[in-house]
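Chapter review: from sequence to fold.
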Amino acid sequence: MSSETSVDQRTRRNFLLSTATGALGCLAGCNSINGSSTGSATDSQESIPRAIGQRGWLQLGGGSENLAYRPEGSAPRAEVETVWTADTSQRVATNPAVARETVFVASYDGKLRALDEKDGDTKWSSALSSQRTYVRSSPAVVGDLVCAGSQDGGVRAYSTQDGEHKWTALPSQRFVGGITVSENRLYVGSIGEGAALYAIDSDDGSVQWQEPLEGGTSTAPAVTEETVFVGGIGSPLRALNTDTGKQRWQYTSADRASFEGAPAVDEALVYVTSTDGKLHAISRDTGDRSWMVDVPQQTGSSVAVADGSAFVLDYAGTIRAFATEDGSQQWSVETKSPFARDDPAVVRDTVYVGAFDGVVYGLNVEDGSVRWQYDTGSPAIWGSPVPVNGTVYVGDADGTVYALAEA
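The C-alpha cell string follows.
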C-alpha cells in the first residue's frame, strides 16, 4: 500500500482545487476547464457511498457492445478523495476490470494483478509472459477466469480467486488490444505478422475461428449475438459472423483512414472514430452510413454511447457530445491537457475521463459542466477510468492504481 502521507497531500491539494473558480461547459459550444465547477443545482444530492462487490465492470467498454454506459449503478457525482492507492512499479496503460470484490489490472512490468476492491491490497499477481514485457491489453473477466494478452505471451487465463494459470492461447501472437467477452467466447485481435481476429473458447483456450486482419488491431471489437464489429490499423471496419468469422459487410472511410478506436454498437448503429478526425454512425445490419461528422482533431478514442448521446475524446484534449440521431454536436469542453489512449465512460448522468496531465474528471452528461476534477499528481493518465460501485478506479503513468470515492 502507498503511504498515508501521499494520500493526505493529494486530498488537501484537491480540496483547494475544488474551491477554485472555473468555466462550465455549454450547449453546442466549447469551454476550457481551468478549475472545478459545481454544475446545476440539481447536483446537490445525498453523497454516494462505496458499494464493494455490488456490480462488476468485466471488460473494456463495460460489456460486449462497448457502450461504456451504465444507466443503473453508482459512481461519484461530487468531489472525490483517494480511498486507496496501489503501486505496480510500471506504467498502467490498461483499463481495470472489476469483479468478485477484486480490481484486476495489467501494467508495463508484464504482470496481471488482483487487488482487493476494499483496500487495494494485492491478493495475487502473475506474469503474463516468460519475460518482462509491456502489457497494453486490458483484462477481461469471464466466469471464474480473468484473461489478458501480452506482446509476447499470447492470451492467458487465470483463476480470479488465486491467480492459478489455466491456459494459454496463441503464444506466438502479439496482443495489445482489449479482449471482448460474449457468452463463453473471447474475441481478440493481434498485431504484426499473421495478424488476425480470433474467437477463443473460454473453457480451454481453443481457437474456434480466425479471420486475417490486414495491419492487425490494437483495440477491442464490439460483439452482439450474431455479429463481431472490428476495425484495425490501416483496414476498414468489418462485420463478421460470431459463429464462423465470415464477413457480413465492410465499411471504408472516404480517406481510407484507420479505425483504431473500439467500436460501440446499440440497437441500430455502430459508432466508431477514424484517425482522420471523423465520427461515423453505421447501420449494424447493412454497413451503410447513417451520418458522419468531424471531431475535428485526430482521435483514437473509443465511443461511449448513453441515452441519445455519443461521447468522444480527441488528442487535443477536448471531449464532445454528439446526438446519436443525426450527429449534431450537443456540447464540447476543452481540458488543459491532451487525452492519450483514454476512453470515456458513463454511469447514469456523469461521464468520466482522464487526461494526459494526470487529472480525472467527472462531467455532467447534459452540458459538460464539471461535477468534479481530481489531480492525481501523476504525469499522465494512460488508461481509462472505470466507474463502478461508488468508486472510480484508474491507473497512471507512474504505475499507481487509484480508488477515488466521494469525500
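Two observations follow directly from the output. The chain is about 5% helix and 40% strand. The helical segments are 4-19.
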